[in-house]
Design brief:
By secondary structure, this protein is mainly α. It has helices at residues 3-27, 32-54, 60-77, 83-89, 92-98, 108-123.
């Protein structure tokens, strides 16, 4: 099996393992700070793994920085009360991707940084050689 195919399988397994853990962490019992923290960190890991899956030979640090920029932008969008954002966030997929209405939290930014560092550490070995 080619190296890229083997690494894509491992990235897919990583995503399949992290998504349920993130959903359980986000929606299961426990203190709100832990649910939010775990969800934010694991959200980054999944996006970096997905990006590395698509762009298998891309430099992982660039993907991690792009994911960090995108998720920080999404966090800033939570300050907006645009009707289309409210409509999107009223759906489960919209809420999972864009966050809750009025859910801006400055403390999410360091969690995104931590998640990107963890995502980088997990996905860097799974990058295929160019």
């Amino acid at each position: 099996m080619p190296d890229a195919a083997r690494k894509r399988i491992l990235l897919a397994l990583l995503i399949v393992a992290v998504v349920p853990v993130g959903l359980i962490a986000r929606f299961h019992g426990g203190p709100a700070w832990l649910r939010n923290s775990a969800g934010a960190v694991l959200y980054e890991v999944v996006w970096i793994a997905a990006a590395q899956f698509v762009w298998i030979s891309a430099r992982t640090h660039r993907l991690a920085l792009a994911v960090l920029a995108a998720t920080c932008a999404i966090e800033l969008l939570q300050l907006s009360d645009a009707p289309w954002l409210w409509a999107a966030r009223s759906t489960v997929p919209g809420r999972l991707l864009l966050g809750g209405n009025g859910g801006f939290d400055l403390m999410d930014f360091p969690l995104y940084g931590l998640g990107c560092a963890l995502g980088y550490a997990l996905c860097r070995p799974l990058r295929a050689s160019p």
